[in-house]
Amino acid sequence: MERHLTHVALFAAMIAALGLIPRFEVFPGLGITAQSMGVMLCGTILGARLGGMAAGLFVLVLLLGLPIWAGGQGGVGLLATGKVGFILGFPFAAFAAGWVMSRLKGAVGVAAFAASVLGGMIVLYAFGIPGMAWGLGKSLAEAAVICLSFIPGDLVKAALAAGITSAVAKARPAALLSRG
Amino acid sequence: MLSLTSPVETPAHGWRVGPKLLALAGLTLGLFLPAPGWPALALALAVLVAAALAAGRWAILAAWLRLFRPLWPFALLLILWHGVTRTPLEGAVILLRMAAAMGAANLVTMTTRLADLQGLVLWLMRPLAPILPAKPLAIAIALMIRFVPVMSDRAAQLAQAWPARSSRRARARLMAPRALAALDDADRVAEALRARGGAL
Fold first, then answer.
1. Domain end marker among B121, B146, B181
2. Which among A120, A117, A142, A150 has a CA at the least distance from the CA of A23?
């Protein structure tokens, strides 16, 4: 119980800490951040339920007003921007990544990469694109085109998440809660 | 402290957090009701002006204005888009609506202490107590806030240790050690929690 609690808090903090890493900007202000990699790791390491809770805790604390979104933003004001879909999609993305991870047998790295792409990209975009369309007053297709620019960066993040997950599986097998 | 709450005291700091958030929810809903063209523009402008006035002192106003920074890329995108499609009114409505909703929300964030908001969340979660007990949630929120600087410190220590061993750049090599160090820290905190009577 305590271990699950501290791991959930830790991974929520990890998403926040990854936002503090200097980011690579595609467009002034609209950058690729490492934060969605934290969401992927929530799923691939903690599994569906705990991973979803960790990402949910991050979103809750973010909306409470801590400046933990990339670039030091925070508060309910973020829900009025085009980022709303990505923010609300975090817990679902982590849950999906964890669900895939627990069902895929085989090499940890490969499974983690597939889980990261499915959860951290496909599910996250499914929330992010409508949010962006709503926030910017654009059609879904137009928002999807803007989202295309995230794909290369997100693939790199999925690969990194897979690497970290297999390192954890080797060094601390008991910490890989997603595989039971 | 990692928080957006403004240290400059305003009258709004003293207002109760529940009504403040309810007013914000009502305002945001009103802003995004379908009302095209000039009325929406006027409403959004009025909200922004009211928010600026409520912010009161200049010290807090400057900090408030800085929080609009994340809106710039969207503003640029919208100006470009609506410039090309020749629909400036529509673009102005979308932009001002977003700015008004965000400005008002940031004002609530800046004038409300984290502990008050946390108290409200825990109170709202009471009906969920059988599924999601309040005490572990409160501990998790506190732990998470504490873990952020701890993780950054750990990462900085590992980054400092690297050049002592190698002349090459660390790049992604430190990512796994960082994750492992963080997991070990979480395990130790879990043991400490258990030793103090558990989290339930």
1. B121
2. A150
Alpha carbon distance B54, B105 (integer Å): 12
Give whole-number Cα distances, A94 to A40, A43, A162, B187, in Å: 6, 5, 14, 21
* Of B66, B89, B121, the domain-final residue: B121
Domain range summary for chain A, segments of one domain joined by +: 2-20+32-179
Tell me which chain A residues have a C-beta less than 8 angstroms from the C-beta of B21.
Answer: 76
ipTM over 0.90? The verdict is no
* B107 and B135 fall within a common domain: no
Candidate from A173-177, B52-56, B83-87, B150-154 with smallest mean pLDDT: B52-56
B106 in A contact zone (CB under 8 Å): yes
Rounded Cα–Cα distance for residues B145 and B115 (Å) = 12
Q: What are B150-166's pLDDT values in tens digits?
A: 888 888 888 899 999 88
Mutation for testing the A interface, residue in B144, B145, B157, B178 having most A CBs under 10 Å: B144
Structural domain including B150 reads 129-195
What is d(CA B156, CA A179) in angstroms, rounded to the nearest whole number? 30
Contact A6 B190 (CB under 8 A): yes
Inform me whether the pLDDT recorded for A8 exceeds 90.
yes
In-domain check, residue B3: no
Domain A2-20+32-179 matching CATH 3.30.70.100: the answer reads no
Q: Do A76 and B3 touch (CB under 8 A)?
A: no
Over the stretch A112-151, which tens digit does the pLDDT of each residue have?
999 999 999 999 999 999 988 887 777 888 888 888 888 8
Structural domain includes residue B40: yes
| B24: chain A residues, CB-CB within 8 Å | 76
